[in-house]
Amino acid sequence: MLRIGVVGAGARSSLADYVGPGGGRIVAVADNSAAGRERAARAFPEAQVVDDHRRLPALDLDGALVLTPDHTHATVTLDLLRAGIPVYLEKPMATTVADCDAILATARATRTRLAVGHNMRHMPVVRLMKDLIDTGTIGEVKTVWCRHFIGHGGDFYFKDWHAERAKTTGLLLQKGSHDIDVIHWLSGASSVEVVAMGDLMVYGGIADRQDNSDRLMGRLASYDNWPPLTQTGLNPVIDVEDVSIMSMRLGNGVLANYSQCHFAPDYWRNYTVIGTEGRLENFGDSDGGVVRLWNSRSEYNGAGDRVIPIPTGEGTHGGADVAIVEEFLGFLLGKRALATSPVAARDSVAAGVAATTSLRSGSAPQVVPAVAPDVRAYFDAGQP
């Protein structure tokens, strides 16, 4: 069985639970906090628990899952890659384009395998829409819109480090990188130009703040935390936007839009994809939801011409988490290809960074920097 290490025993460490079913074994966990090491010892009693990820190279690992806060991704991943340890890196890849490019360059130079955790490419709703597009159901894609209603935003993103620019760049990158990547995937190209606007409209006005660093993300969440202005215990520092609107021009000419709101009452994503022969739109993004298809001319037709139920997945994120861990383990063995190239993961960060720059500079249009052609070629070839 593959010997796998874990860096970070925080909110996302539950991902490591799927290593066993996927054919691996957690043999080591690194966390620089005492509370994290205690959680690791309880969750993985047979694993060696250490206080520094730099101790992992001595433990004969076949790979490692990097599940630490975003601003630490680059440092941890670069250390592991330079030590020859293949890495599964939780999304977003990093909080700056420079860090993303350094990770790609190091993986290429050391010939050490790298995967990035864009698990949404494995979510049943996204897979369904991608399959419908690829089979020509709506013709050639021309425009994509995504509205992201983040009903638990105040609980999940404004009570810990996610609320700080220094640790995320912004939520248009941190939270939006998932949807930016999905938009790129459904459209068949990455963003080359973006423009955005956004603001801190609600949570910046709440004075009740406290240090929640001793608690995991989501442990303070409750449906009773409503309406948003009654929230308490927010992070001491809040300098990211709680509403963001981003427009994109992709390399193949597709025009796209992504909007997120962190004080919506409900929590789901709504994608609309319009092609030359029809339109797709999802209603709900998990079990019980549907994708509706319109491919005939009409006036208002709320039901659509065809309704396709979203397949039921097992496990978290509709089965996407177990699927992406299995994919990583298969990739280490040379038996699986990655659904998300590390270059695509980098491109989602680059678009998110550029959009954040735009919204903080009077909505000035921004050109998204492209990755070096030789780097793209290496990863397009599957990291030979």
UniProtKB/TrEMBL annotation:
Q: Where is the GFO/IDH/MocA-like oxidoreductase domain?
A: 126-281
**Boundaries of every Gfo/Idh/MocA-like oxidoreductase N-terminal domain copy:** 2-118
Q: Which molecular function term from Gene Ontology is one that the record holds?
A: nucleotide binding
Q: Which PANTHER family match?
A: CONSERVED EXPRESSED OXIDOREDUCTASE (EUROFUNG), OXIDOREDUCTASE
Q: What is this protein called?
A: Oxidoreductase
